[in-house]
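Hi R.,

Here's the chain you asked about this morning:
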Amino acid sequence: METLLFYISNISKGGAQRVITTLSNHFSEKYHVILVTTTVGEGTYPLNPNITHLSLDFAAEDIKANKLTKNRKRNIRFKQIIQRYQPSVIITFLEREILRVLYLKPQLSVPVIISFRNDPNVDYSSWLQRFAIMRLIKRADGIVFQTPDAKQFFTGHYSSKDTIIPNPIHPTFLKERAIGSRDARIVTVGKLFPQKNHALLIRSFAHIASEFPEHTLEIYGEGELRNSLQQLIDSFGLQSRIFLKGVRNDIEKVLEQAALFVLSSDYEGVSNALMEAMALGLPVISTDCPCGGSAMLIRHGVNGLLVPVGDERALVESMRSMVNDPVYAEALGTVARKIRQEVDPQVVFASWESFIHDVVSMGKEIDE
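And the predicted structure, written out as C-alpha cells:
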C-alpha cells in the first residue's frame, strides 16, 4: 500500500472535513497521500505539505457551468486523477462524493472505502438518492460506519467488509483540566444551521435564566441562522446572557472551565463537539438524536444526560438539575472523560490503518 487517495467535497469547517484532514495528515507521514476535493479553494484545516491536494473544479467556467456539464467534467477529472496516480485505495466521505465514486467504480479498478458521517435518513432523504445509494453501495469494497444505527439503515443491501470506527479527537482535548471551580457558563459548539437546533437551547435557557442569574449561554459557531437566532435572543431580552460567539480556533480553552456543555441537535452522526467536551471532562447533556451517535457515547445518568429530540421541557429539567447540583454534574463529567480511551487519535488511526490494509489485501486476492 503506497498511495492513499481521500476524497471529500471541501476542507472547510465541518466534522467530516476535520476527520478526513486529520487522517490525511497522519497517513502522509507514512504513505503518499492525495486529497481530492470537489470544489476549489483553501480549506480551514491545515494540510501537511507532503499531501498532494487536487480539486475537480479549477477554472472559472466550472462555477458557471450547468449542473450536468459540471458533473460530467468532474467525473472526467476524477478518472484522470486515478489514472495518473494509481492509488492503492480510494477513501471517500459525504453523500454526493460517495455516490460519485460508486457510480465511477467499474471504471476505476481501485478498491473503494466509503464512510457515512451523518444520519443516512437525512443524507438520502429523497427517493432518488435512496434508490441510488441502495443500488450502488454493493460496489464498495469497504464501509466505515460511525454508529450501529447507520449500519442498520443499509442492512441487506451490501456484502462489503464493514466496521464501526469513532472519530479521532485533537490531542489538545486530552489534557488534564486545571484544578478549580467551573465558570457559570453553559456552552455549545456547532454551525448555526437548522440541524443543530440552537433555538431549542436558547428557549430552554430562557426558562431557567431567572433561577440562575449568574449563568450565561455561549454558542460557538457561524452559519445562516445567525440573524434569526439573535432575534430570538433579543425577544427574550437576554442579550446580556446569551452570546453568539462565532468561530474560535482555541475552542478547548473556552470549553474546559465551563459548567455544562449541551448538544441540542435534531440529528448527528457522531458529534465531534460532544466527544471533545466529554474528553475535557465537562458535564454534558445531549438530545438522543438519530443516528445514535449521542446514545453510543452517553450512558444516561452515568457520564451525561440524554433527552428526547426537540423536547424543550426535558432539556429544561436536565439543565436545571445539572446547574442546581454541581457535585452531581462534576461526577458525570469525571466519568465522561473516560471516552478519551476510545477516541484517542492513535487508537483511531490504528483502526483505520488495519481496515484499509484488510480491504486492499482482499482486493489483491480477488485480482489474483
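The chain has two domains: 3-168+344-367, 171-343.

Let me know if you need anything else.
M.
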